[in-house]
């Protein structure tokens, strides 16, 4: 018998647990430089519908840039990015359409301090989705209920904890019914006890089938909840695999990264 060639060990196959799903996000050989600093060096990966993928890696490895390119907050130098059938790298891309499909949540929640929680969540529904007041209110309250904050609808941001404010920011994105949600270190500014409540909201979203791509430092969370983990190193996808890959890192770089993190 002829031995089957092993797959590249740093791209471990993930055992399929369900029907193949359409690809929602696809990066193919993405390059991006800021001046002479090449930050993304041929990044390729896909996120299928309903998948939750966690990106980990050292500070400066290009994680945020990759996420920002997906929502076209940055343009790429070469390669291609497709989101829900939209070619993001097309110079003529319809940014309004793209941003209706992509929800993005950052470390800083950027709520409007002069608007209450409900008004913060309703804002884009009214102005971007052109929903009437009653409809926007209904959708916003449903999104707030999903993050467990419908009872805080009339509170102002300053009356909420950091964790609650971040959950409002998630609800604001969620209310737009995006096809994929991107999270960039959304718990990094929070105390450990507030981190848990935000992670639980994200775990809930994943369990309910939301397609998610998140950059995180929460290794245990990534390991437990993510379908796949992408380890980025110096602008490249260095190692990809299921959560257990963190127990058995293949590359010396991931070994060193995990050892430094503990
Ligand atoms: P990470 O999120 O993994 O920490 P980033 O994507 O934020 O990494 O940054 C990767 C590199 O790109 C860093 O060297 C950073 O200084 C640089 N960089 C990011 N954004 C910009 C920008 N807008 N202008 C210039 N350099 C940037
Ligand atoms: Mg970052």
UniProtKB/TrEMBL annotation:
Keyword match NAD: no
Main location (coarse class): membrane
GO cellular component annotations of the record: plasma membrane
Family affiliation: Belongs to the ABC transporter superfamily.
Transport recorded as keyword: yes
Signal peptide interval: none
Pfam assignment, any one: ABC_tran
Membrane topology: Peripheral membrane protein
UniProt GO molecular function: ABC-type amino acid transporter activity; ATP binding; ATP hydrolysis activity
Source lineage: Bacteria, Pseudomonadati, Pseudomonadota, Betaproteobacteria, Burkholderiales
Name listed for the protein in its UniProt record: ABC-type amino acid transport system, ATPase component protein
Organism for this UniProt entry: Herbaspirillum seropedicae (strain SmR1)
CDD domains for the chain: ABC_HisP_GlnQ
Domain ABC transporter: 25-259
SUPFAM superfamilies xrefs: P-loop containing nucleoside triphosphate hydrolases
Keywords attached to this entry: Amino-acid transport, ATP-binding, Cell membrane, Membrane, Nucleotide-binding, Transport
């Amino acid at each position: 018998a002829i031995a089957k060639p092993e797959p590249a060990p740093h791209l471990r196959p993930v055992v399929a647990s369900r029907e193949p799903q359409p690809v929602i996000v696809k990066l193919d050989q993405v390059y991006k430089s800021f001046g002479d600093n090449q930050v993304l060096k041929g990044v390729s990966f896909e996120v299928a519908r309903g998948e939750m993928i966690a990106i980990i890696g050292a500070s400066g490895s290009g994680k945020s840039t990759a996420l920002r390119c997906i929502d076209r907050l940055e343009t790429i130098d070469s390669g291609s990015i497709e989101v829900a059938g939209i070619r993001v790298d097309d110079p003529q891309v319809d940014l309004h359409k793209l941003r209706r499909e992509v929800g993005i949540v950052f470390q800083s929640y950027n709520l409007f301090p002069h608007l209450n929680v409900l008004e913060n969540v309703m804002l884009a529904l009214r102005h971007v989705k052109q929903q009437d007041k009653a409809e926007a209110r209904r959708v916003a309250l449903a999104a707030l209920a999903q993050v467990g904050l419908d009872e805080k609808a009339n509170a102002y941001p300053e009356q909420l904890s950091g964790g609650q404010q971040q959950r409002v920011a998630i609800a604001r994105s969620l209310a737009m019914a995006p096809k994929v949600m991107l999270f960039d270190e959304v718990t990094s500014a929070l105390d450990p006890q507030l981190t848990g409540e935000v992670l639980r909201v994200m775990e809930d979203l994943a369990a309910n089938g939301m397609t998610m791509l998140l950059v995180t430092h929460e290794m245990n969370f990534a390991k437990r909840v993510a379908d796949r983990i992408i380890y980025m190193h110096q602008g490249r996808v260095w190692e990809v695999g299921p959560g257990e890959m963190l127990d058995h890192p293949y590359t010396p770089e991931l070994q060193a990264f995990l050892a430094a993190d503990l």
